[in-house]
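Reopening: Endonuclease still failing for me.
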Amino acid sequence: MYYVYIVECKDGTLYTGWTVDLEKRINAHNLGKGAKYTRGRAPIELKYYEQLDSKEAALRREHAIKKLSRNDKIELIMYDI
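Support: Ran it again with your exact input. Result attached.
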């Protein structure tokens, strides 16, 4: 299983990524061992995720989400609640 996720950083910015182990990846971000963008912006909080069946699908979805505006990402997060 593959996951695409959106986290909110302590500075209020949103970061989108993909992983095969969501819990491990969130912990890595919070320990400063995740993406370069999230280093120094911890703690981060998971706001949204999707499960996908293939790496290719996860990469496509990650790319599509990254192209969204901040407001569209917030709507996506709010719609999921």
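The first strand starts at residue 2 and ends at 8. If you still see a failure, please send the error message rather than a screenshot.
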